[in-house]
Amino acid sequence: MPGIDKLPIEETLEDSPQTRSLLGVFEEDATAISNYMNQLYHAMHRIYDAQNELSAATHLTSKLLKEYEKQRFPLGGDDEVMSSTLQQFSKVIDELSSCHAVLSTQLADAMMFPITQFKERDVKEMELITVVVIFSFLDHDAAINRYSRLSKKRENDKVKYEVTEDVYTSRKKQHQTMMHYFCALNTLQYKKKIALLEPLLGYMQAQISFFKMGSENLSKQLEEFLANIGTSVQNVRREMDSDVETMQQTIEDLEVASDPLYMPDPDPTKFPVNRNLTRKAGYLNARNKTGLVSSTWDRQFYFTQGGNLMSQARGDVAGGLAMDIDNCSVMAVDCEDRRYCFQITSFDGKKSSILQAESKKDHEEWICTINNISKQIYLSENPEETAARVNQSALEAVTPSPSFQQRHESLRPAGQSRPPTARTSSSGSLGSESTNLAALSLDSLVAPDTPIQFDIISPVCEDQPGQAKASGQGGRRTNPFGESGGSTKSETEDSILHQLFIVRFLGSMEVKSDDHPDVVYETMRQILAARAIHNIFRMTESHLLVTCDCLKLIDPQTQVTRLTFPLPYVVLYATHQENKRLFGFVLRTSGGRNESNLSSVCYIFESNNEGEKICDSVGLAKQIALHAELDRRASEKQKEIERVKEKQQKELSKQKQIEKDLEEQSRLIAASNRPNQASSEGQFVVLSSSQSEESDLGEEGKKRESEA
């Protein structure tokens, strides 16, 4: 109904259909106003929340800019120009933060308060009156229905009075409610205009006030400051673009140069192995045992630091100690059908680690680097030059020098070299005998063109020259502690001495002399030099069992005896003069290169810093064996004397028995001759054969006593 702005209050009692229809239009309008105002309220509330958030964020930004100078950045955290610039920005932003806070307060008072009042008070009041009007309509309709059902024939004054009173009350209530409802709907049209205009007016006034405060704070000096900062930003951007272009060119160059390195196993001709490293870093696969037969491989970053091998997992800030590799041993091993594996064993043998390299080059470089660190080359002033000099000496050591004297002279520093005519004496353990031996050539110690054996051949496949064929121990499982699981005892169970050491076989070769420790030293030199030249890093680890009878090499996994060296044939043993982990012994056997004569073979081993202990143990075993042999001989001699005495005692007791029997026979004969003395002339006493033999034995016994 266009043109109608009010509900006629005077028509509320009549309650005509036209009035009801007009009321429906006003109710629809009130519902539309309520929905629209709810949406407007949420929109303005978002403005208010955003302003509060902006004020808080601006204040936090100002606070963070003030704290910039207190930060300690790893890169460029001490830039004073940047700190002063940010301090200036902090002051301006702090002032803007204050303006935003004032704006938030004004929005809350001038914008949010009016629309909140309309939503919470006026709209809810209309909703409450609507509910009351509906109930009044229902009560009035129910009262009219009761009044209409009054009986005309059976009139009851009491009932009629009650129904009439009910109609009166409900109609009055409906009339009053309708009047208030019409009044509220008419008033809502005015409140709608107020609720729409007043918040918008407050919003605009608050913004105008905010902009006025901003214009007062932004001065010309600030504009100049901002212009300077803009110029600086442009300069930084140009510098960044130039640096990015340079880095892109570097990336392209590196991609071309690094293309061969993308292969996991690069060509060794293009990338040769560097054997002079004392520091190395890279990723390795580490073997971790998870059970008796199961294991896992973890990829970690390893690097050397002094005499330590460090490991660092991905995501870790710093590396941790993996192993102390001073005086350690390293060798290539076969592990779980994986390539390029090597094992590092600590100097005391208590800790070992198996690692896998990515390529053959890395594999050899890691082994060479750890070997150089194990020799403590990294402590020198120029480690790489020292390592190169040591490796070059190892290469040159294969060609034997003409004499011990020249070899010693070549190893001395240039400033301490002596004249060629000067003689040097060996520092061996035999004193003056070493002086005479120093003049001997190497050919008198090591046979020329002697082949070197670098691995232990299984006794099942081939008899070793140092293994006693009569021992019967080849390939049988042996308990190194002398404990037997069966009824048959091994040869070592009765031995007084049982000492077990972890050793690694370096090699063996035939020697021509076995009467001086220099034989062992020269054999060590040649075997180590040959290993360095031929890149042989693999070493067979075994358990060396020292007893009073023999030396045994036992497989640590299967407890099978690999080699047996009878102790009487071990004629010489010694440790290296400088590297106490190296030791060797000479075994004198029959056969060898010349089957008609005795031959001597020198065996060289590497231990876990226990070379002197092993030699002392072998010496103790030989002393115990010597004393045991002397005791055995003395015991046999004593037993022989006791057997002779026992035999003489038996003969003496037998002689006494014969004499006693003869005396008894004599008495019997004398007793039988007394009654017949007269008739005894011309008669003879006839002895039996046994008596005659006893008498002969008695005479022989007397002769032996007289001879004794």
From TrEMBL:
Source superkingdom: Eukaryota
Chain residue ranges for the region called Disordered: 397-433, 463-492, 645-708
Gene Ontology BP term (one): adiponectin-activated signaling pathway
Record-annotated PH domain positions: 277-375
Protein name: DCC-interacting protein 13-alpha
Gene Ontology MF annotations: beta-tubulin binding; phosphatidylinositol binding; phosphatidylserine binding; protein homodimerization activity; protein kinase B binding; protein-containing complex binding
Entry keyword annotation includes Ribosomal protein: no
Topology term for the membrane: Peripheral membrane protein
